[in-house]
Design goal:
4 domains; DNA polymerase, domain 1; single chain; 5-stranded mixed β-sheet; alpha+beta; 498 residues; 36% helix; globular; Uridine Diphospho-n-acetylenolpyruvylglucosamine Reductase, domain 3
Length: 498
């Protein structure tokens, strides 16, 4: 029997044991709570930025009436209060009856063990992969292992012995973490507490976790400066580095309608609480190019915790999802106690970190239109590393074609100004033209003349200018390689036109 009340504590299961956390402890990064309060020092904190993976833990989150599958996350940047009713497994919880689990055994046999900083996170990441593959009946391949380890830096042995350990894991010997830790008795506790909202007071700290949107909107109106925290993959870093402190917080992850991810006609409705991993998996069948971009968005640990709405509302000029959403003409849905409104992303960004967002408004979901087969879309991210890196330049193009002619063009660039920008001059220039290499070379040159990027630690202004020019050419080359017959027809049409 469920009951609805407001409680003053967070309930988390750590390696199967229930922890009731209140006061200042609820505001600690999860890794610090594990190390300092739960006496589980196997989880390490090195970068405190979610980059190195030493803090990797496994978490199954409570959603509606059950837990999700176990996924990895960076526990160094995620506050405890985000994990009410979650089940957390640390490296200490991977052993079974005082014996190493199958991943740990193979890491030992293939000499994949390193210093005490890297290895626990590596083992947790690969255990998450083993849990997933065992459940789905798939084998662990080198590609899967590499993908799951993109958030774990290797400092000592190199990756080869670690990859050898991964691909030699015998899944018939894998003992399910879900069966061990997502028990009936723990589930009954969650069912009793799931309807509760949460309000916690700490030392100069305040936390609210409502279960109804109306309550959240009232809290936002009463306290416009309250910080909304979703995945904390960006805010957690800033908090750890002392840029600002998450002392007055509103968490929306217990509001059911904000976790919805569904198709509505030709639009994907993405709730503000939907993780990047969920969105990536969903778009694989609905927008493959967008799913491909999300695969190099960040590490699994970041994507499992971070949200699409968080990336959009952070509003970084190098936010990886924003250019694609701009050319798709996505809409941001906002709510307040006064009602709801819909803002096109193309008009949401006013200046650097300045948005069309009222102090009392909360983003509820993002509407992402899907384009039909007459559209060609490409999304590019240029960074020093392929995985887990901040972009220097981002590029998105959506071109509508009919009989080899461009009938509509949408272009967006990131990393070239204080916000991600659409390029109306370039769009107008492309519209009505045949798809030719010369056209896109000219478009790249013109785009270069229209932007004024800055130099910073990731790239110089000259580098960014050249990359933008090259990306227009890259777009056409990829189109040509995929549509050789159509390109020949367009080139001939353009020649006849001369």
């Amino acid at each position: 029997m469920t009951h609805s009340t407001e409680r003053q504590s967070i309930h988390i299961f750590i390696n199967g044991r229930q922890h009731q956390i209140s006061g200042d402890d609820a505001f600690l990064p999860l890794a610090q709570y594990l190390r300092l309060k739960a006496d589980l020092p196997g989880t390490k904190v090195v970068c405190a930025e979610g980059d190195c993976g030493a803090c990797t833990a496994l978490v199954a989150k409570w959603n509606k009436n059950n837990w999700s599958a176990f996924q990895t996350l960076n526990s160094c940047i995620a506050p405890v209060y985000l994990f009410d009713l979650a089940s957390v497994v640390t490296v200490e919880g991977l052993t079974f009856e005082d014996e190493l689990n199958e991943v740990q055994t193979k890491m030992q046999q293939f000499h994949g063990g390193q210093c005490g900083y890297c290895t626990p996170g590596m083992v947790c990441a690969l255990s998450g992969l083993a849990e997933s593959c065992s459940k789905s009946g798939q084998q662990i391949t080198e590609k899967k292992a590499r993908n799951h380890l993109t958030g774990n830096l290797c400092r000592c042995t190199g990756y080869e012995p670690i990859l050898n350990a991964a691909i030699n894991v015998d899944l018939t010997k894998w003992i399910s973490l879900a069966e061990r830790y997502l028990t009936t008795s723990n589930k009954e506790v969650c069912l009793q507490l799931a309807a509760d909202s949460i309000a916690i007071q700490g030392t100069n700290k305040e936390l609210h976790v409502p279960t109804e949107l109306a309550k959240a909107l009232t809290l936002k109106k009463q306290s416009p400066g309250i910080r909304i925290v979703s995945g904390a993959t960006d805010l957690g870093v800033l908090h750890n580095k002392g840029k600002f402190f998450l002392d007055k917080v509103l968490v929306l992850n217990r509001i059911p309608e904000l976790s919805k991810l569904e198709m509505n006609a030709q639009t994907i409705e993405v709730g503000a609480g939907v993780s990047l991993t969920q969105f990536e998996n969903f778009t694989e069948n609905h927008h493959a190019e967008l799913s491909r971009l999300l695969r190099v968005f960040a590490s699994p640990q970041i994507k499992n915790q971070g949200t699409l709405a968080g990336n959009v509302l952070n509003g970084s000029p190098i936010g990886d999802s924003i250019p694609a959403l701009l050319v798709l003409n996505a809409q941001l849905n906002l709510a307040s106690t006064q009602g709801q409104r819909q803002v096109p992303l193309t008009s949401f960004y006013k200046a650097y970190k300045t948005f069309d967002l009222m102090p009392d408004e909360i983003a509820t979901h993002i509407s992402v239109p899907l384009l039909d087969k007459s559209w060609l879309t490409k999304y590019y991210k240029v960074s020093l590393r392929k995985d887990l890196d901040i972009s220097a330049v981002t590029f998105a193009a959506a071109i509508k074609l009919k009989d080899g002619l461009i009938t509509e063009a949408r272009i967006a660039l990131g990393g070239v100004g204080p916000t991600v920008v659409r390029m109306p001059e370039i769009e107008k220039m492309l519209t009505g033209q045949a798809m030719t290499e010369a056209l896109f070379k000219t478009a790249g040159q013109k785009a270069r003349a229209l932007i004024k990027p800055l130099s910073d630690l990731r790239a110089t202004d000259e580098y960014r200018l050249k990359v933008v020019e090259n990306l227009f050419h890259k777009f056409f080359i990829e189109y040509r390689n995929e549509n050789e017959t159509a390109v020949s027809s367009s080139e001939e049409q353009a020649y006849v036109g001369r």
